[in-house]
Task: structure prediction
Amino acid sequence: MAIRRSLVSMLIFFLAAALPADGTAGEDYREAFWAGHFYPADSSVLTADIARMCDTARHDSFTKPAGKVLKALVLPHAGYIYSGPTAAHAALVLEKGQFDKVILLGPDHRAGLNNGAITDAAGYRTPLGTIPLHADAGRLLQQTGLFKPFGQAVDKEHSLEVILPFLQYLLGPFSLVPIVLGPAQIEQTAAALDPLLTPQTLLVVSSDLSHYMEYEAAERKDRQTICTIINRDGKALAASPNSACGTVPLQVLIDLANRHNWQPLLLHYANSGDIAGSRDKVVGYAAIAFYGDTDMDKQNSSAPAISPQLGGVLLTLARQTIALKLGLPVDGEEQKKLEEQMREKEFQQKRGTFVTLNKNGQLRGCIGSIAPVESVASGIRRNAVNAAFDDPRFQPVQRTEFSDLEIEVSILTDPKPLAYKDGKELLAKLRPGVDGVILRQGLASATFLPQVWDQLPRTEEFLGHLCRKAGLSADAWQTGRLEVLTYQVQHFSE
Result:
């Protein structure tokens, strides 16, 4: 027994010694691969270096735009001896507790990725501590056409890691949505990120500028690139070779900035020749802040409204699409006329869309897309087919049912986060009959279109059913811990 107790004591000792000091035992964190190379591995040395660079940067003049709030940052990601003084200019615009979530976009330098990749770890570990992943990272991974898991065994990407200690030092605790981007679908990627941009979210793009040009040529090139970013011209940026290693993440940022009218402001520019080393082959660095309104609902005011007449055209489009899928005859002249009508600018705008099918007053299918990832015309076509044949709650529509179908189409505004403290305030802020509602908690998510208020007019009942649809308890909305987004629709019915 004494020997057994001794062995148990030794095992407990060794297990305790193996536990990390920050208490993250059992959590699978992506380790700091570049600590000791791009930046100091010792936490006290790292903190002192960042503090020194930030204190120096704070002496530079910068006036924050009146009535605007910080939405995004561009920061460089080279070794701190080179890019650190520029990255430190984030100290001019960041402070402790300012944001609780960071979406960090960086370019793929070595893995050969297509589209976006997100670590399969629980978070990142740097010498300054651990950063947990936000639940939004898991939500993005559900969009398999845009984002894939990134295994730690191959994740040696430095563009994200090098930025993190600066954010930890300046912001304090936050959760992270880390995305490494290869060649990607810019508009679709931006549309997937758009609903995640709450007032407490900072979007950060990690990018250096030109690489290995002679000093004067690099300065000219970099100034041109900075002007392109300031002008929010993603196409010009993509067309200019050797403008930035983070061209794809920058294009995504520019797309979002154009959606929300964010205004870019240069905080600092330098290149490696200014800081250390030779001026024969330099790399450029810039820190750029993007400022926007305190709310982001102005974007929808510029979207062309769909008139009742054009709404009728969309209903025809949905019906004709289902008929063709069923193999029913469709007049060729009517098809040609409809294709011409689809060229209207209102049908080319990117909006979320839903198609709802009813039969004898009962739901027969309803499928849609909330994010504005495709044109209204494309969305109605796709969702008409999905509602008729791919709604898992119903059998596919048959030819014999076609004439009995009643079709409704809905055109959505972009979802906006709804800030609230508790269930009582949530009840007061929701607008029955007006707001479509999205509820989220972790990976659980569900939405009701505004039309659902017709069946569930009491807000408590509406929220209870929506919570159950998301797989949550009916009273989960009362806790104040759910993420709530709202949107509005134009809808047209046959």
The chain has three domains: 17-299, 303-412, 416-493. The longest helix spans residues 308-326. Residues 303-412 form a domain with the Glycoprotein, Type 4 Pilin fold (CATH 3.30.700.20).
